[in-house]
């Protein structure tokens, strides 16, 4: 499955547009991870635990989108957009969503 943020796949003309496909993943924040992230914010540096969670959520959202495209008979997704949104009563959850157009190239 080809997944790209560009509107086309270079050298491979789109033969059929199958529709918009999406993938969404919501992950909860962990109190212990939040405490370590707060310490990292104070002393500086990167928060490795949060980065791991973001990477995993992004991979899962993309896989979900690819699976939807495959169900429609597509072999590529073009024009992919990935968004991140903090949700929940106190910003306690993170939503990663991606969307694109399923196509046959």
From TrEMBL:
Transmembrane region(s): none
Pfam families reported in the protein's UniProt record: YbjQ_1
Protein name: UPF0145 protein BES08_10615
Xref: InterPro entries: UPF0145_dom_sf, UPF0145_YbjQ-like
HAMAP family from the UniProt entry: UPF0145
Family classification: Belongs to the UPF0145 family.
Signal peptide coordinates: none
């Amino acid at each position: 499955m080809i997944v790209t943020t560009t509107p086309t796949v270079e050298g491979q003309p789109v033969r059929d547009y199958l529709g918009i496909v999406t993938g969404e993943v919501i992950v909860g924040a962990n109190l212990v991870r939040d405490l370590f992230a707060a310490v990292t914010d104070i002393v500086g540096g990167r928060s490795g635990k949060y980065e791991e969670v973001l990477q995993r959520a992004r991979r899962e959202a993309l896989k979900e989108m690819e699976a939807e495209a495959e169900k429609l008979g597509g072999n590529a997704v073009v024009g992919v957009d990935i968004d991140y949104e903090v949700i929940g009563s106190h910003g306690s959850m993170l939503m990663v969503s991606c969307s694109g157009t399923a196509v046959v190239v």
